[in-house]
Write a structure and sequence with these properties.
It contains 3 helices and 4 strands; from the N terminus they run βαβααββ. The chain is 38% helix and 25% strand. It has a single domain, classed as Ribosomal Protein S8, Chain: A, domain 1, CATH 3.30.1370.
């Protein structure tokens, strides 16, 4: 199982950069046939994680993956499992 990781700590306060990086990582994973994306919005106040979840619920993004898990041991991390 191959995985790609996106850590959003460095751009947590840059709205357009967040959307751009999320789009980039999803498209890169699809293009390379990567099945799992690990997104780290961090713990913080939870606003960045909410933004990431809203991004993932968009129809054109939602159709690319079949499952999303929130890490039970670290609530500042998400796993997205792409369709094959």
């Amino acid at each position: 199982m191959s995985k790609i990781k996106l850590d959003l700590h460095d751009i947590y306060n840059k709205g357009k950069a967040i959307e751009s990086e999320l789009n980039r990582v999803v498209n890169e994973a699809v293009d390379k046939g990567i099945t799992t994306i690990e997104i780290i919005p961090g713990k913080g106040s939870g606003q960045l994680k909410k933004r990431v979840l809203r991004f993932l619920e968009q129809k054109h993004i939602r159709k690319m993956y079949h499952r999303m898990d929130k890490d039970s041991k670290n609530w500042g991390r998400l796993f997205i499992y792409l369709r094959k």
